[in-house]
Amino acid sequence: MIEADRETPIDRKLLELLVCPLTKGPLTYDREKSELISKKARLAYPVRDGIPIMLPSEARTLED
């Protein structure tokens, strides 16, 4: 499930529809880093100007 609040710079309904493009799994929103996190793929997709960049080539690999 996607976690978001009123300060999310992207639309909440959009967040509910988005899934990881690699795993098709759920995403969580990190407001501080402005990223969508796929725990299963261990990737963080950036959100730029309120637009999620859902390209694996643009994602940051999560470390332990």
Secondary-structure blueprint:
Layout: H1 12-17, E1 28-30, E2 35-38, E3 43-48, E4 51-52, E5 60-61
Antiparallel strand pairs: 1-2, 2-3, 3-4, 3-5
Describe the structure.
This protein has a single domain, classed as N-terminal domain of TfIIb (Single Sheet), CATH 2.20.25. 9% of the residues lie in helices and 27% in strands. The chain has one helix spanning 12-17, and strands at residues 28-30, 35-38, 43-48, 51-52, 60-61. The mean pLDDT is 86.
Radius of gyration: 11 Å
Number of helices: 1
| Tally of strands | 5
Which CATH-level-2 architecture?
Single Sheet
> Helical residue percent?
under 10%
In short:
With 64 residues, the chain is mostly beta strands. Helices cover 9% and strands 27% of the residues.
List keywords for this structure.
9% helix; N-terminal domain of TfIIb; 5-stranded antiparallel β-sheet; 5 strands; globular
